[in-house]
Amino acid sequence: MKLFVTALILFSCISSGYAQISDEEFDSEIDKLLKVRTEDLWQMYEKHNNRRVELEKELFAKKQKNNITSDEEKELRKKIAVEKDSLEMRNKKLAVIRQRSDSLRIRWVRGVLPPKESSAFVKRLLEINEEGDRHKFFPEYIRTVWKQDSIAGISENVRSRRIKAFLQLFRVYEQKNVQKPKLIRKVSGGKIEF
After folding, report:
1. Would you kindly state where each structural domain of the chain is located, as residue ranges?
2. pLDDT of 34 higher than 80
3. Rounded Cα distance, 80 and 86, in Å
4. Are 194 and 183 in contact (CB under 8 A)?
5. CA dist 176 to 19, 24, 73, 84, 180, Å?
6. 193 has pLDDT over 70
7. What pTM does this model have?
8. Considering only CA atoms, which of 43, 33, 35, 29 is closest in space to residue 90?
């Protein structure tokens, strides 16, 4: 299922069925999702993880001293399980936020970059195996695009949007590749094969 979702998101980059969105809508929505991810979900993680750690320490200390009844141990284990369930629920919410962020990025990129250019960029990323090499490649690629666009007489505003689009596409690719490497077998003629 994860592979299917990942494939769908990256394929959306070159498909024509995705509704495009304005820059303002994109910035507003991505900021909201980022706020939920960095503030709300982070606080949720800290709260439940800290509580879980405290309970596990308490259980360990009591067992070390042999100062715990089976009922007390059972109760502590239940509390630990509740905190773990809360953390799992938080992780599911985080996965949904990431998926929505990626979908939003792709929708916006579609309005900025032509499908063949998006496909060529993803193809180039696929050719680079090491994460560090991709991080070296990306700034060089961006400088080249900026220079070529300047020579072509493209306005600075449009060039900035294009650079931002490549950055958003790179973020989607990196996140998906970290989760499941080598998701894409081949990119050719503007089509991505999974």
Report:
1. 20-110, 115-193
2. yes
3. 10
4. yes
5. 22, 25, 41, 25, 6
6. no
7. 0.70
8. 43
pLDDT (0 to 100) of residue 18? 55
Type of residue at 41? L
Instruction: Indicate the burial class of 155 (C-beta count within 10 angstroms; 0-12, 13-18, 19 or more).
Output: exposed
At residue 37's C-alpha, the angle toward residues 32 and 39, to 5°, is 90
How many alpha carbons lie under 13 Å from residue 176 in its C-beta half-sphere? 28
The pLDDT tens digits of the residues spanning 114-135 come to 989 988 898 888 888 787 888 8
Write down the residue that tokens 């960029």 correspond to. 121
**163 membership: H or E segment, kind and range:** helix 156-179
Distance CA 131, CA 104 (A): 24
* Residue 186 parent element (H or E): strand 186-188
Are 142 and 159 within 8 A, CB to CB? no
Q: What angle do CA 72, 76, 78 make, to 5 degrees?
A: 115
Which residue has tokens 């080598």?
182
| Residue (of 2, 62, 13, 65) closest to 191 by Cα position | 13
